């Protein structure tokens, strides 16, 4: 045990700003990226030089529904967690209402809050979580666990018709690594730990969990487990479903305990039932995770491929081979063009090298409109990294790709946690930029890619605006990979109506072309309409039965997933 017991207060719990991603005062800037404004003008007809189109959201103009929690009930909760850790003010309730999906951001900016949680509690430990749950179920209140509030699947908002009192149970004070078993590489961690806090505590003792979603800075371990998250280095460390070995989940009247064992044949896996349960089976208070020694060396190399076919074929060969990279990612031609447009102006030798590279590729017969940028990451000791890279280089060469060194990869690694701010920037300019992701077998990936572009193009036509779609492949498996799509368009008069048409078309294309409705964002309310097509009617019936039996009163985050 590392014996850290430093107490946390509600005031120390970090939340994102109420109207968008991340923290106030940080944002996406395009002035230092000379290619960006011409790029968006061409892609979606957005004139950035015309300035911002929408006003910054003003909290004083929000109409926040009044809390329906009685003084007596608030006092009962305050008696458990302390009066200072039970809050009902409007700002706290707004912060705990939504996640950060585009739908959430549009609604919050428009001041649309149909239903907020009525009271927020910040328990300090599992015992307090148990008492809050028991008191809430006794009062027939609804309990919605809150991690970082970063989900984009509509997993947090109380149903607009919810007539019962809604308690948002914020795990923010449970943020410590409790114990590391060095023999087994297992760490017991409290579920409310945010990514950076969790990694900092593990790193101090020479360990890493290796889970780095793009939302890493503002999401929690419990949230990752509850949404079946996946991080950038999943090729090496696995998805969260692989990383979680043990769990403690507080339910009405008791704690569900899954002990950390490497594998078990004890019937359908209850551990797996909790992973992805989005708060419907109880509140995860503690997770035992697989951790690894910090690698001696970590490098991300960039490669260019002539086109997506060559690039995907190379990624498939890498996945089939004995090579074990930490990251395999390839952007399609549209996303490659976007990446080049969001690069800062290069000067001097760097500029000459870039111009020289492009001229060389043209001479080799490449069309710069078709080429694809790929990042491949390696981790381990010096010799391992060297050997892995040489094996990958061989596969890349066989598929006519070329390596362009570590520079672009290092830049990507530094920028990745800033990219989420771009959605707020686009909304300031009256435009949507959002994502949808799927996974499918290798044999179907090209078909899924084409089907999504086709569906999105039809949707843009339907709403009557120019739209932009781009994609990358990441998270490789032996049998297939994740395809991640970004889409953008300038809003007309009905932002959410237009968004529904585009997002709906993309989701439908996923299932029609043989992919899943989500590889790592979960189901929530956003993807629930397609669940039956994904896992069949019987699958939905089993899931409904599970939630119904585990929570007969429908007190735990009701109506999410099914
Ligand atoms: P929250 O949003 O607070 O909650 C999500 C759901 O989990 C809710 O249903 C909530 O009730 C439940 N929950 C939370 N904590 C608990 C708990 N302790 N016990 C029981 N239920 C709980 N996801 C990825 O996987 N990979 C990515 O790369 C990625 N990138 C993103 C980038 C951006 C810009 C954004 C906005 C989101 C991204 N996401 C990504 C999605 C999101 O970050 C994940 O879904 C994340 O796992 C949510 O964690 P959270 O702590 O924020 O959970």
Can you describe this structure?
By secondary structure, the protein is of the alpha+beta class. The chain has three domains: 10-170, Uridine Diphospho-n-acetylenolpyruvylglucosamine Reductase, domain 2 (2-Layer Sandwich), CATH 3.30.43.10; 177-294, Uridine Diphospho-n-acetylenolpyruvylglucosamine Reductase, domain 3; 297-416, Alpha-Beta Plaits (2-Layer Sandwich), CATH 3.30.70. It is 37% helix and 19% strand. The chain has helices at residues 36-44, 71-81, 90-95, 102-109, 126-138, 195-204, 221-227, 234-237, 240-243, 270-274, 308-320, 333-341, 348-363, 382-398, 407-415, 422-428, 442-463, 495-512, 531-550, and strands spanning 86-87, 119-121, 142-146, 166-170, 177-181, 186-190, 207-208, 244-251, 254-258, 283-290, 292-293, 297-305, 327-331, 372-380, 402-403, 431-441, 467-476, 480-490. The strands form four sheets. It has a seven-stranded antiparallel beta sheet, sandwiched between helices. Strands 5-6-10-8-9 form a five-stranded antiparallel beta sheet. Strands 1-2-4-3 form a four-stranded mixed beta sheet. A hairpin with a 4-residue loop joins strand 5 and strand 6 (186-190). The longest helix has 22 residues, at 442-463. Mean pLDDT is 94; it is low at 1-5. Residues 21, 99-100, 144-152, 155-156, 171, 191, 213-215, 219-220, 222-224, 226-227, 229-230, 278-279, 283-284, 420, 520-522, 557, 560 line the site of flavin-adenine dinucleotide.
């Amino acid at each position: 045990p590392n014996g850290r017991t430093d107490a946390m207060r509600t005031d120390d719990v970090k939340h994102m700003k109420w109207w968008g991603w991340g923290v106030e005062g940080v944002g996406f800037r395009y002035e230092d990226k000379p290619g960006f404004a011409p790029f968006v003008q061409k892609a979606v007809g957005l004139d950035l030089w015309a300035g911002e189109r929408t006003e910054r959201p003003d909290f004083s103009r929000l109409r926040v529904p009044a809390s329906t929690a009685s003084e007596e009930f608030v006092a009962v909760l305050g008696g458990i967690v302390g009066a200072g850790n039970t809050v009902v003010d409007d700002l706290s309730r707004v912060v705990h209402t939504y996640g950060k999906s585009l739908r959430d951001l549009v609604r919050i900016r428009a001041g649309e809050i149909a239903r907020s949680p009525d009271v927020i509690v910040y328990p300090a430990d599992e015992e307090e979580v148990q008492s809050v749950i028991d008191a809430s179920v006794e009062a027939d209140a609804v309990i919605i666990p809150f991690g970082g509030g970063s989900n984009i699947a509509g997993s947090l908002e109380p149903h607009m018709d919810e007539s019962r009192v809604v308690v948002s149970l914020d795990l923010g004070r449970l943020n410590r690594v409790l114990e590391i078993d060095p023999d087994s590489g297992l760490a017991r961690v409290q579920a409310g730990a945010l990514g950076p806090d969790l990694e900092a505590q593990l790193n101090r003792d020479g360990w890493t969990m290796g889970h780095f979603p793009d939302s890493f800075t503002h999401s929690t371990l419990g949230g990752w487990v509850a949404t079946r998250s996946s991080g950038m280095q999943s090729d090496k460390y696995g998805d969260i479903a692989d990383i979680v070995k043990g769990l403690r989940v507080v339910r009405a009247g008791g704690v569900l305990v899954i002990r950390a064992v490497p594998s078990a044949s004890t019937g359908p896996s209850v551990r797996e039932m909790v992973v992805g349960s989005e708060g419907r089976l109880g509140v995860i208070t503690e997770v035992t995770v697989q951790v690894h020694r910090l690698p001696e060396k970590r490098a991300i190399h960039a490669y260019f491929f002539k086109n997506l076919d060559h690039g995907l074929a190379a990624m498939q060969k890498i996945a089939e081979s004995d090579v074990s990279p930490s990251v395999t990612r390839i952007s399609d031609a549209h996303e490659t063009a976007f990446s080049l447009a969001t690069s800062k102006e290069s000067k001097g030798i760097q500029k000459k090298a870039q111009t020289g590279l492009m001229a060389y590729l043209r001479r080799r017969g490449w069309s710069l409109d078709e080429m694809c940028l790929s990042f491949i990451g390696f981790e381990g000791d010096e010799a391992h990294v060297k050997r892995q890279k040489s094996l990958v280089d061989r596969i890349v060469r066989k598929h006519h790709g070329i390596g362009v060194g570590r520079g672009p990869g290092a830049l990507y690694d530094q920028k990745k946690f800033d990219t989420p701010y771009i959605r707020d920037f686009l909304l300031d300019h009256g435009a949507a930029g959002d994502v949808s992701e799927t996974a499918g077998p290798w044999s179907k990936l090209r078909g899924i890619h084409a089907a999504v572009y086709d569906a999105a193009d039809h949707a843009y036509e339907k709403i009557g605006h120019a739209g932009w779609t781009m994609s990358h492949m990441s998270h490789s498996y032996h049998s297939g990979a994740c395809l991640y799509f970004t889409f953008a368009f300038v809003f007309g008069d009905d932002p959410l109506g237009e968004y529904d048409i585009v997002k709906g078309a993309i989701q439908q294309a996923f299932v029609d072309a043989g992919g899943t409705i989500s590889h790592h964002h979960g189901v929530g309310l956003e993807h629930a309409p397609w669940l039956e097509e994904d896992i069949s009617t019987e699958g939905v019936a089993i899931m409904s039965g599970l939630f119904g039996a585990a929570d007969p009163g429908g007190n735990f985050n009701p109506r999410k997933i099914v």
